[in-house]
Each structure stands twice: as structure tokens, then as C-alpha cells.
Design goal:
This protein is 70% helix and 0% strand. The protein has six helices and no strands.
């Protein structure tokens, strides 16, 4: 578990740098505080990747970040990070969308 957590943190930093776990609606947004719901979702998603999948995701990090920003501009997803974050629909939405763009990035 510790190894997977460290891998997830390294992946997040490699992809996002100082913007890891922060909401972002545009590349030029100013840096926001760390969002606990994003921390949870990205940590779990990245920890489940194989080493090969992690490499591919990192190689395509610009594509992933573009998709990540697009997600933040979808009201339902954005709300799943902002209010009622513990409600089942919010949790399901967050995880399904992050998993979707992660898989899309890896398969592209």
C-alpha cells in the first residue's frame, strides 16, 4: 500500500507539478488550494495503474491535463469537488470521470 501511495504521489507531481490536487478551469488560472476530493480521487486512480500505464500517462500528460481542465468546466463534475463531496453521486461522478480520462489518455 505504501509503495502504491508513493507511486501515486510521484505521478501527480510529475503530471501537475505545484498544481497537483488543485481545481483548474483554465491553464492560466491562478493556483487554488489543494482540494481533498481531488486528492482522494487522483491518489486512488494513479495508485491502481501498472508501471507501464503510469509511464504512458506521464508521456501524454499534456493531453491528460487538457481533459482534466475540460472536466472542471462540466458543472456536475465541478460540483462533485465543491459541495456534498461525501455524497454517493458526487463520489461516483468524480471517480468515474477521472478513471475515464485516465484510461482515454493511456489508450490514445
Amino acid at each position: 500500500m505504501k509503495t502504491n501511495f508513493i507511486k501515486a504521489m510521484n505521478t501527480a507531481i510529475t503530471i501537475f507539478g505545484d498544481d497537483a490536487f488543485r481545481k483548474r478551469r483554465a491553464r492560466e488560472d491562478r493556483r487554488k488550494p489543494i482540494n481533498k476530493a481531488l486528492f482522494e480521487t487522483l491518489s486512488v486512480a494513479f495508485s491502481k495503474l501498472s508501471d507501464e500505464e503510469t509511464e504512458t500517462l506521464i508521456e501524454n500528460k499534456e493531453y491528460f491535463k487538457d481533459k482534466f481542465i475540460e472536466l472542471h468546466n462540466e458543472l456536475i463534475f465541478y460540483n462533485s469537488l465543491a459541495s456534498g463531496t461525501g455524497l454517493k453521486p458526487s463520489v461516483t461522478k468524480r471517480f468515474s470521470e477521472i478513471n475515464r480520462i485516465t484510461n482515454e489518455t493511456i489508450l490514445n
